[in-house]
């Protein structure tokens, strides 16, 4: 069994898991808020983004519209940064970075904006694809939703008075996020929760099947012997990959089906995401997936109030010449809040980790880094923007100045 097989048995993780179970009420993990339309109508209740996001731990994704951190680099540092990318012909820039060369810095090296919904205070629609994001701490960010389905999605509200209301994006003026009541009269379904076994080990937590299905009322599609099935996840005990083209689906009734013909049960599946307390999100490729066993969730997940007001990333950067710089850290010339995410892979399993969960990052050659989490567990990640030579470097705001350290000169990053 791999080093991840007993991840939740680590002492710190066990304690956190127990606190997690007792601290959260049954329904407080579901997104809740008030939607105001362009006409001034308001609807309040549990929210669901399209047919996907429904929990405070789900991700809101868009693109940042500018990168003002480049203003603090010298012309030589900017030239070196551009040269490193101009000299590469291997499509090294990931989807998290958009490079364009204009006369100011605002359109260059623009990154994706991703955050759990629990960090948001409100969303104000400025156009069909532009949104003003207000964080819980009162900070405002402008984001662009082009190419992201979270901006433009219909929002479903389980309104207290009217019931199920679906609102088109173009009719929305503002979404305000509010604390979820402990016990909801209506909700979208029970959480999908369980243990996923993959080639890398075992992960237990809240599950997104095929990146989409998250609650028990969502359905798994497939066919067997010419018969088409749409099975609510509430009825499923386990799913086991059977090669590339089918899956063995065991129902809670004891019946087993060998389903095929759908991206829910074959290698067109986009992957299985597990949200693990103290770690983050683990995105398991279908080729790495073996089996999931569902079980009753201890609760609906972290509440809105459990997400602290966003704070800046702080710590110490050790440089290859022996220098150290302590202060606010802007990682990859982009991530500056502790809710922002470090991305990396291990054996085709993607890890998406909030910086608040990270203790230390140590680059390992040009293509990887060792990451130590605050609970003491260790990961060795590679690929992606954040843990390889694709990283744009660190900007550290010290007591008296801002210092830029390219990624290839970073020895170690210790986070507070």
Folded structure, characterized:
By secondary structure, this protein is mainly β. It folds into 3 domains: 7-26 and 188-304, no CATH class; 32-64 and 112-177, no CATH class; 311-415, no CATH class. Helix content is 6%, strand content 43%. It has helices at residues 11-23, 75-86; strands at 32-37, 42-49, 59-64, 97-98, 110-116, 120-125, 130-135, 140-144, 155-159, 163-167, 172-177, 193-198, 201-208, 219-224, 227-232, 236-242, 246-251, 256-260, 272-276, 280-284, 289-294, 314-319, 324-330, 341-346, 349-354, 358-364, 368-373, 378-382, 394-397, 402-405, 410-415. An 11-stranded antiparallel beta sheet has the order 4-5-3-8-7-6-11-1-2-9-10, with no helix packed on it. The protein is globular. The two termini are 32 Å apart. The model is unreliable at 5-24 and 89-106 (pLDDT under 50).
Write the layout of secondary structure elements.
Elements: H1 11-23, E1 32-37, E2 42-49, E3 59-64, H2 75-86, E4 97-98, E5 110-116, E6 120-125, E7 130-135, E8 140-144, E9 155-159, E10 163-167, E11 172-177, E12 193-198, E13 201-208, E14 219-224, E15 227-232, E16 236-242, E17 246-251, E18 256-260, E19 272-276, E20 280-284, E21 289-294, E22 314-319, E23 324-330, E24 341-346, E25 349-354, E26 358-364, E27 368-373, E28 378-382, E29 394-397, E30 402-405, E31 410-415
Antiparallel strand pairs: 1-2, 1-11, 2-9, 3-5, 3-8, 4-5, 6-7, 6-11, 7-8, 9-10, 12-13, 12-21, 13-19, 14-15, 16-17, 16-21, 17-18, 19-20, 20-25, 22-23, 22-31, 23-29, 24-25, 26-27, 26-31, 27-28, 29-30
